[in-house]
Specification:
- It is built from six helices and three strands.
- With 146 residues, it is mostly helical.
- A three-stranded antiparallel β-sheet has the order 1-2-3.
- Helix 5 (119-129) packs antiparallel against helix 6.
- The protein is elongated.
């Protein structure tokens, strides 16, 4: 009985070469993916700097910073600086947001500013559904407007 001719072609070195070849290909792909990931990081600027929208001093509906502003002595109204101006001024918050404080109550502030902006539309929706919801909405809106 003669041995299979296909098996004769495979020597002891052949499987090692085959394995070595595919291990090297896998390593090349891994290095390629690592380098692509690094290149993407270089193109994204300011990714490690704090974002004003996550700060507790940020007023979302006006893009203002409540940390920096003044009170008008005639009318008593508060005027705040724009968040972009505050971040561009190194004497105030600066590029690296030295006065940044994380807003842990964002689940409250986001709906608050939503109602503040779209309160009239919500008024129409609530009046159609329930008098109790309407009463709660009116109380909430009077508190916000004060």
């Amino acid at each position: 009985m003669e041995p299979n001719p296909l098996l004769k072609k495979w020597s002891k070195k052949q499987p090692k070469r085959f394995l070595y070849k595919y291990i090297m290909k896998i390593l090349q792909y891994i290095f390629f993916l690592i380098n692509i990931h690094r290149v993407e990081l270089y193109f994204i600027q300011n990714q490690n700097k704090p974002i004003c929208a996550n700060c507790k001093f940020f007023i979302a509906n006006k893009n203002e910073c409540s940390k920096f502003g003044y009170v008008d002595i005639i009318t008593g109204k508060y005027s705040y600086d724009q968040a972009s101006d505050v971040r561009n001024d190194n004497d105030k918050c600066g590029e690296y947001a030295i006065f940044f404080r994380k807003n842990y109550f964002k689940f409250i502030t986001i709906p608050y500013y939503f109602v503040l902006e779209d309160g009239e539309d919500l008024f129409l929706i609530f009046t159609c559904f329930s008098p109790f919801v309407f009463l709660v909405f009116v109380i909430f809106m009077t508190i916000i407007k004060q």
